[in-house]
């Protein structure tokens, strides 16, 4: 059943900054996972939490919904898919509903005093795809977007939106394992070159022998990129 924005309150797992909060990062999990599950996986890979002095990290959990690739079984997914392929149409109705719900999350940060250009959105797998829809179709004024092991369908509504855009677009940081058998490395590359052709400043990092998973090198590279997009503010002189 379709849910309107405001009727869905996402569960959130939050990692507070060690110091003064001046920027926020929304990190979306892959299909069937949870915010807590993603945080736990990152902690296992890095042997510690992903933390920053000034950046609050929000790991929301997608609500349960029937998921077509699981024959209609319930799963915590950001949207439905007809199948996991770059060649089929997008399930836009479910994507658009979730864009509204995630907009509430962005709005909450803005209300708490964080400027929109100090908010990053991104995710792993389906979460990265959701982040690209959220930023490039609805919030082109965020600080940047990251997509790990993610792709957009060939006729994505994201591409259509960017064809009509003439402003400055958020930079995209993309990572993909060459051995990924679930979301093919070539799908990630195609997404990257398509976005570049539409004016997005897009970086693409390939990781040899990495499957559909998070790797330590990738997360360390992501952390460095996050700090270039959301640098800490200089200490105030007393």
TrEMBL record:
The keyword Lyase does not apply. Residues 13-227 form the Phospholipase/carboxylesterase/thioesterase domain. GO terms for molecular function: palmitoyl-(protein) hydrolase activity. Keywords: Acetylation, Cytoplasm, Hydrolase. It is found in: Cytoplasm, Cytosol. The lineage of its organism: Eukaryota, Metazoa, Chordata, Craniata, Vertebrata. Belongs to the AB hydrolase superfamily. AB hydrolase 2 family. Coiled coil: none annotated. This is Lysophospholipase-like protein 1. Its EC number is 3.1.2.22. SUPFAM superfamilies: alpha/beta-Hydrolases. It catalyses: S-hexadecanoyl-L-cysteinyl-[protein] + H2O = L-cysteinyl-[protein] + hexadecanoate + H(+). One of its GO terms (cellular component) is cytosol. Palmitoyl thioesterase that catalyzes depalmitoylation of CGAS and KCNMA1. Acts as a regulator of innate immunity by mediating depalmitoylation of CGAS, thereby preventing CGAS homodimerization and cyclic GMP-AMP synthase activity. Does not exhibit phospholipase nor triacylglycerol lipase activity, able to hydrolyze only short chain substrates due to its shallow active site.
């Amino acid at each position: 059943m379709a849910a309107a924005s405001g009727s869905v309150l996402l569960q959130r797992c939050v990692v507070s900054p060690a110091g003064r909060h001046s920027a926020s990062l929304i990190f979306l999990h892959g299909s069937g996972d949870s915010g807590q599950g993603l945080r736990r996986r990152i902690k296992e890979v890095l042997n510690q939490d992903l933390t920053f002095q000034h950046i609050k990290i929000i790991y929301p959990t997608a609500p349960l919904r029937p998921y077509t690739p699981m024959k209609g079984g319930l799963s915590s997914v950001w949207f439905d898919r007809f199948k996991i392929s770059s060649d089929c149409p997008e399930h836009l109705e479910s994507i658009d509903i979730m864009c509204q719900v995630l907009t509430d999350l962005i709005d909450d940060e803005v209300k708490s005093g964080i400027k929109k250009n100090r908010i990053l959105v991104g995710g792993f797998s389906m979460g990265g795809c959701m982040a690209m829809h959220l930023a490039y179709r609805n919030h082109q004024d965020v600080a940047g977007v990251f997509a790990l092991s993610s792709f957009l369908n060939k006729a994505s509504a994201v591409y259509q939106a960017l064809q009509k855009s003439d402003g400055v677009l958020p930079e995209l940081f993309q990572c993909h394992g060459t051995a990924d058998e679930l979301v093919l490395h070539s799908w990630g590359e195609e997404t990257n070159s398509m976005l570049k052709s539409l004016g997005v400043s897009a970086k693409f990092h390939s990781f040899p022998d990495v499957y559909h998973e998070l790797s330590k090198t990738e997360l360390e590279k992501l952390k460095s990129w996050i700090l270039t997009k959301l640098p800490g503010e200089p200490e105030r002189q007393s």
